[in-house]
Structure formats: structure tokens, C-alpha cells
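FORM 12-B: Structure-to-Sequence Request
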């Protein structure tokens, strides 16, 4: 009976309305309102938030290479209003349960003139934003679709502040820009906007399936206006498909605080439920790996004197993980081909170098209860990987390896294809689907951006798709502010394999580094304090969380205890405070214990944040283990000074979190026995 009431599907109103010219739908709490109207034959949508217009009438529709545009001559044929108030459970995630409460408007548009085509547009309106998607149903006169332009517009009303990376068809690994909306020429999504009166908006897409990545392009002839610019195929067509076609959801997250934006579940709610029946093999974890040495230039991926992935070295990492409450060990550079980087067919993905005994290592890891993480670097040769998916995944499956990190560094080797075009979107999906068949979890680097498909395929654990830790090893790196923008932009889309945890911040222990990359100008270092490195484990969510430094740098380091104790999967997460580009504090409650973990970070400015601990259980007293910036710490000249101390707290306590310039703080709260 209780179950029955937890799922509420309500009223279906079907109206035939050849004369209706506008339709309205609002969010369950009535604060967001969407209007759909026909004006001179064009289908337009607009959005209001708390009675003020955020998006003025904006175009919907398509242009095709093989038929007339679908953008005018529309009338509203029928419409349907439905809704649902439901909760569902995640296999893993920031929160165990997610509320899915929305009102939906489905509009069937019909052309008034030849060829009388039909197009449906679905609007789902939640309290934290909305999504809309197109459907071109199967019908007479349309079979194959060659979409040359998606005409979706986002016509804002005000010149908001924007946070974004410029549009790029191959990479999201850029520093964020902060500009007024009218100065944004183009952008990747998510792009986040902030008003001066507490309105936060982010545009992205959900469930990017068999379609091209949407970037935004400034509309030259209008103020405050963008249109969708899809990543093309080599021949310029954007999407090649057939009817019935459904597009990804175009999402507009809208909240009245920066904190709520980060807490939004819109992306997940706009994806299909999990389709993997047995999920027992899907497990979040912490991992270490043979990785940072290569980026620093003290080790190599290739065979030779400084080769990182040797049998001996890997066993050390396995032992270290086993002794330190870390579950996984990633090994890169174990397989042949790195010396032929950039050439077609360089990697066969399965042949080990002569100093790496794959079978021995796999058996050793199993004997120590450690999860070996496999690595497939394609060097952009996605087609060759695709041909070999069964071979690669069956090898890993036989070895007991349940996680594989993939990589697509460099240009896509199939001529004219981009990382973010439909061809690659489909490739990335094939990898996830095939991996699921072999019970393998995926961590993708140089990926397509996350759009919430982790809900449907919970083996799609985490991915890069941002300027991660590696850039600090061989470029001017990521400035202190980068981390305080990530959660409000790229972070809204889904988990990020940033790989925090560098303890040797100034690379003092990294002797004999060899420059291996043209971006390395010799000034590289980490632009944070040590305490901020710890805080990032909580702030930057990932179900696979890498402690990325060389294990030597963790030996005899009291600060490492925070990483050892850290949970990997969460009952619930809350954002206690946040200002885009300035600071953020997040707390997460462990799914398997009563411990809470807090991460708080600042940009280049030192600051004090006062937080109350009302999230803690009312009936318990907790030990707080605090990892704070040292008294004289700052990211520039004294990044490593850390103070570790304990305090007794309860749900009525308040804490003053002192953050150094470029600093952070990490806290573990555990109930007193
Ligand atoms: C780029 C990835 O981001 C990095 O993690 C990896 O080590 C290299 N490619 C080599 O595969
Ligand atoms: Ca990368």
C-alpha cells in the first residue's frame, strides 16, 4: 500500500486543439513556468522563473540536408499534460535516493502546408529546471533524416555573468572563462549563468544518445541570444538518423542559489532507469596507480630504463593499496605501442611489454583482494578499438579485471571525425554497452561530456572531460580558482575523474624529470595547498576517486589518513555554501557507516566560512578530525603546511573554517562510540 502511494502518476489530458496557439506548464512548486506558442507559424518556447521572464520566445525546429526545414508553418495539433512524483534509488551516487517530481507537456506540432510533417516536443518541468526534447515520429514522407542544423535558441532577457569553456569539437580540457553573456562567442555546455539577484541558470543536455554534442553559438543579430551548434560529421551534416528520432533533452537548470544548482538532480532524472540487472559487480572505489610519474616525466609509458609499469613496481602499488584501505590499482604503459604513438594501429591493447607479467600481476592483485584497473589508450584510433572490443574486454574479464580506463588522446584517426560528433558519441556508447556485457566498469578520458547516462548504464562510472590534474605536471597548470568553478559548471553534468591528491606540491621529490611534452614550460607545480588537495576528494565527486601522487609521497604523511578513511559511496550529499569562482563547501554521508566527510575550498583569496553542523544526527556526538591549512600556509609560497587536530562536535555546533589563499579544509566526522 505504501509503495502504491510513493508513486503518483497523474492526470492525462488529451486535447485536440487546432485553434490553440499557446500552452503553459509549470513546475510542481509553480516557480518555473514554460510557455509554448505559435507565432507566424514558428514554434517558440519561453521560460519564467518567479514571474520574471528568463528566456524570451525562442525558436524550435530543424534544417535538413535532404528535405525542407521544419521550422515554420506549424500549428498545434494536440497536446497532453502528464506528471509524476516518484522516488528512485541509485546503484551508486551522490545520493542514495532521488526525487523525480515533474509536470510534462507533450505538444504535437503539425505543418499546415506540404509535406504536412509532424513533430512532437516534450517539456518536463521540475522545481530545479526543465528539459525539452524533440521527437520526429515515423510518418509518411520521412524516413532518413540528415539534420544540418538544430534551430533551438536560448534567448535570454538579461546580460548575466557566464562561466564556461569556449566551444571545442575535440576537447573540454580548458580553463573556464568568466564573461558577460553578450561577450560569449561560443561555449561548450554546461555553461552557467548568474544574475545579480539570486538566479542561477545552467544550460546543458541530458541523455546524449545517437546524436551530436550541442555547443552554443552567439546569435549575431540578437542580444543575449544563443543557438544550438551541433558538432558535425566530416561532410558537414550534424546528425544522420532515421525516424522515429528523439533528440537529447535540452536542459535549463534554474535555482535561486548556487548551492541548489550543485544539488540539482535534473540530469539524472532526464535519463532512463538502469538497464543492468545484476549490479553486484559495480563498485565505487578509491584507487592509486602507475600514472603520475609519467606525467611528471620521472617515468615513461614506453619500455626502457625509466619504464613505470614493471612487474616489480606494480606489486609495490598493489601492496600499498592493500595496506592503506585503497581498493584499486591503475596501470598505464603496461602494453606495447607507446613508442609508435600517433601511428595507426600503434596499440593492439593486449600485448604486455616484456618487463610486465600481466598474468602474474592479475593473480597477485586477486590474492591481495585488490582490483586491478586496466588501461586502453587508443591514441584517437577509436575505430580500431571498436573492432577489438570483444577481444579486449574478454581478456580483462578472464583476468578478473572489472574496471578499464580508456583514452582518446590526440585527433580522432578516422579522417574528419571529432571527439564530440555523432560518430564518436555512438562509439563511446558502444564501449559502455560492450563493457557491461563483460561486467566491466568504464572510466573514460578524452570522453564525450557526461549527460546522465550513468543512470541507465551504472557501469559508466566516471570520466575526464575537464582540465584535470595532469595539466599541473606539464603546463602552467590549473589556477586556484579553477576548482571553485568546476562544481558549478562541468560538475553539474556528472562525475569527474580529476585525480586529486598530490602531496609533493612543488615536485621536490621528483628528481631527474624529463620534458616529454611541448606544453611543459618548466614552471609546473600544483597551485593549491595540501589541505585543499584533501578537500577536493569531497568537493569533486567521482565514484572512482584516484589518490594520484606517487605512493612514496604518501609514506609517513599523517594527512594521508583522510584519504584512507574516506568513504566511496554516499547516502546523501549537501552543499553548505558556495559562490561560483570563489568558494564551496560540501558534506557527504557515507553509505556504509555513520561517518560524514566535509570538503571546503577557496580560490586565491583566504577566507573564513562559518558552517553549522545541523546535518549531523541529532542524537550523536562526533569526533571531528580536521585537516586544515597551517597558520602560515598559502598556495604560493607555503603550500604544504597543514594542521591536523580533533574536536568534539554535535548537530548544534558551528565551525569556523579558515581557508588559506588557494587553500582548503577536509573533515571526517565519526560518531563517538
Ligand atoms: C590522457 C589522460 O587524461 C591521462 O590520464 C593518461 O595518462 C594519458 N592520456 C595517457 O593515456
Ligand atoms: Ca586528458
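FORM 12-B RESPONSE
SEQUENCE OUT:
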Amino acid at each position: 500500500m505504501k509503495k502504491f502511494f510513493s508513486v503518483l502518476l497523474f492526470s492525462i489530458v488529451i486535447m485536440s486543439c487546432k485553434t490553440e496557439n499557446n500552452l503553459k506548464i509549470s513546475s510542481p512548486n509553480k516557480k518555473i513556468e514554460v510557455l509554448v506558442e505559435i507565432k507566424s507559424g514558428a514554434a517558440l518556447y519561453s521560460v519564467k522563473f518567479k514571474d520574471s521572464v528568463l528566456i524570451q520566445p525562442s525558436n524550435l525546429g530543424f534544417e535538413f540536408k535532404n528535405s525542407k526545414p521544419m521550422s515554420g508553418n506549424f500549428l498545434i495539433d494536440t497536446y497532453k499534460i502528464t506528471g509524476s512524483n516518484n522516488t528512485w534509488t541509485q546503484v551508486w551516487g551522490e545520493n542514495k535516493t532521488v526525487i523525480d517530481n515533474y509536470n510534462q507537456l507533450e505538444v504535437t506540432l503539425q505543418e499546415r502546408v506540404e509535406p504536412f510533417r509532424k513533430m512532437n516536443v516534450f517539456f518536463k518541468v521540475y522545481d530545479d529546471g526543465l528539459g525539452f526534447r524533440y521527437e520526429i515520429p515515423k510518418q509518411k514522407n520521412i524516413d532518413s533524416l540528415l539534420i544540418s542544423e538544430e534551430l533551438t535558441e536560448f534567448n535570454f532577457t538579461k546580460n548575466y555573468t557566464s562561466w564556461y569553456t569556449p566551444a571545442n569539437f575535440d576537447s573540454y580540457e580548458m580553463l573556464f572563462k568568466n564573461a558577460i553573456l553578450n561577450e560569449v562567442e561560443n561555449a561548450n555546455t554546461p555553461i552557467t549563468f548568474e544574475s545579480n539577484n539570486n538566479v542561477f541558470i545552467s544550460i546543458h543536455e541530458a541523455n546524449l544518445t545517437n546524436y551530436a554534442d550541442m555547443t552554443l553559438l552567439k546569435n549575431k543579430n540578437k542580444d543575449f541570444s544563443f543557438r544550438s551548434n551541433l558538432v558535425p560529421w566530416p561532410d558537414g551534416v550534424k546528425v544522420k538518423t532515421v525516424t522515429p528520432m528523439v533528440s537529447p533533452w535540452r536542459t535549463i537548470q534554474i535555482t535561486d542559489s548556487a548551492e541548489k544548482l550543485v544539488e540539482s538532480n535534473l540530469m539524472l532524472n532526464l535519463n532512463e532507469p538502469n538497464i543492468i540487472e545484476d549490479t553486484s559487480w559495480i563498485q565505487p572505489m578509491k584507487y592509486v596507480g602507475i600514472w603520475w610519474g609519467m606525467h611528471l616525466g620521472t617515468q615513461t609509458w614506453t619500455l626502457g630504463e625509466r619504464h613505470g609499469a614493471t612487474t616489480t613496481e606494480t606489486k609495490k602499488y598493489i601492496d600499498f593499496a592493500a595496506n592503506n584501505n585503497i581498493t584499486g590499482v591503475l596501470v598505464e604503459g603496461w602494453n606495447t605501442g607507446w613508442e609508435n604513438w600517433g601511428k595507426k594501429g600503434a596499440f593492439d591493447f593486449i600485448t604486455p611489454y616484456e618487463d610486465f607479467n600481466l598474468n602474474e600481476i592479475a593473480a597477485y592483485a586477486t590474492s591481495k583482494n585488490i582490483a586491478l584497473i586496466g588501461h586502453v589508450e587508443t591514441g584517437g584510433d577509436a575505430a580500431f578499438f571498436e573492432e577489438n572490443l570483444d577481444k579486449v574486454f574478454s581478456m580483462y574479464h578472464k583476468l578478473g579485471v572489472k574496471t578499464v580506463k580508456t583514452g582518446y588522446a590526440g585527433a580522432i584517426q578516422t579522417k574528419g571525425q571529432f571527439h564530440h560528433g555523432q560518430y564518436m558519441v555512438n562509439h563511446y556508447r558502444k564501449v559502455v554497452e560492450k563493457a557491461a556485457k563483460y561486467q566491466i566498469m568504464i572510466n573514460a578520458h578524452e570522453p564525450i561530456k557526461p549527460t546522465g547516462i550513468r543512470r541507465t548504464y551504472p557501469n559508466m562510472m566516471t570520466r575526464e572531460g575537464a582540465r584535470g590534474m595532469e595539466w599541473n605536471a606539464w603546463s602552467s597548470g590549473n589556477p586556484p580558482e579553477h576548482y571553485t568553478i568546476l562544481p558549478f559548471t562541468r560538475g553539474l553534468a556528472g562525475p569527474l575523474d580529476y585525480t586529486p591528491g598530490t602531496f609533493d606540491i612543488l615536485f621536490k621529490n621528483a628528481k631527474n624529470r624529463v620534458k616529454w611534452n611541448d606544453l611543459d614550460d618548466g614552471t609546473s607545480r600544483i597551485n593549491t595547498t595540501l589541505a585543499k588537495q584533501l578537500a577536493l576528494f569531497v568537493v569533486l565527486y567521482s565514484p572512482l576517486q584516484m589518490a594520484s601522487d606517487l605512493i612514496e609521497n604518501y609514506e609517513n604523511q599523517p594527512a594521508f589518513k583522510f584519504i584512507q578513511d574516506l568513504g566511496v559511496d554516499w547516502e546523501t550529499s549537501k552543499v553548505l555554501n558556495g559562490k561560483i569562482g570563489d568558494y564551496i563547501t560540501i558534506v557527504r554521508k557515507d553509505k556504509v557507516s555513520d561517518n560524514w566527510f566535509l570538503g571546503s575550498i577557496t580560490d586565491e583569496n583566504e577566507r573564513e566560512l562559518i558552517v553549522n553542523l545541523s546535518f549531523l544526527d541529532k542524537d550523536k556526538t562526533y569526533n571531528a578530525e580536521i585537516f586544515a591549512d597551517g597558520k602560515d600556509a598559502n598556495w604560493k609560497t607555503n603550500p604544504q603546511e597543514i594542521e591536523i587536530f580533533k574536536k568534539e562536535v554535535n548537530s548544534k555546533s558551528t565551525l569556523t573554517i579558515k581557508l588559506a589563499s588557494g587553500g582548503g579544509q577536509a573533515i571526517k566526522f565519526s560518531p563517538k562510540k
